Amino acid sequence: MSKRDFLPTLNIVTHGELKNLLFKILIGFLHSFSTCTMETCKWTQYVRGIPMPKLPFFPEKNITDAIDYIPKDGDVIICSYPKTGTSWLQFIVQQILSKGQSLPQFSDLVTKIIPFIEKAGIDALDALTEPRIYKHCFSQKVIPIRDNAKYLYIYRNPEDVLISYYHFSADIIQEKLTIDDFMDDFLKGVWWYGDYCDHVMSFLSQSERDNVLVLTYESLISNRKEEVLRLAKFLGEEYYKCLKGDEAILDKIIEHTEFDYMKKNVAFIAPEIPKNNESSELKERKVNFFRKGTVGDGKKSLTETQLKKLREHVASKIKGTHLADKWLGNEQN
Q: On the CB side of 28, how many CA atoms lie within 13 Å of its CA?
């Protein structure tokens, strides 16, 4: 890790932000003692102490710019952990704002319409019209919530996040990963974006704020219309009234954001990763981004030993919170 990763940034203006910087420095120091598996280390870079994808399309400058970016008044920020329904939420928001128009292609969504700023860069925000909506995947500890913006957060059962993230990561880096090696890194918090439970807890601690809306993947699956309406109301009363007043638009949004519809009509195109992980003349290929879109795949896919290991880790992180009942039930006792 370079020394400049620990240099203070010039936009620190409050005591709270100073505390946040010190937290980042501490996390960076602790991560210097963390170890990933030999198979996965080459795909991870540490930026400000945060494990991030070491891929040609995740340049360090974009990552640091994203961390330092201060939102403008009225910005709407999707800020969830990878593979928790974050991209699905992007498409739902796009559909609400466009009143159910045709789905954009994935690359247009994450670079032009609702930019994924660690990848697209903050310059992509200059072309946005109000309401400006963009996405990052950092925890609230890394990018604190500000009063002048709105924040959308979605989370998911950890077993399903783990198995979805495993398949996605293996597909992106185009190498065969073992689930055990991936799980080790995931539980140590040394895979991309760090520990999942810490990420979730950082946002749930802010969930009572008026400018934060927290959704669950499971509720979005089982109560789609109600959750879409709740999301529309959070985005603005005019969007809520539009969907309540014209059920045909709401039905179209529900149809367009069904998993099978998206899998059929939206292509995820990613650069081909060169064997030396260099960025020269990257070719493109289709990635299986929309894999299953179900609840409970993690329990079906992991062995009892793997499930036990995951649940022990989760229990150590969320003991005494309402998530313990939700995710672990009687198993926490």
A: 19
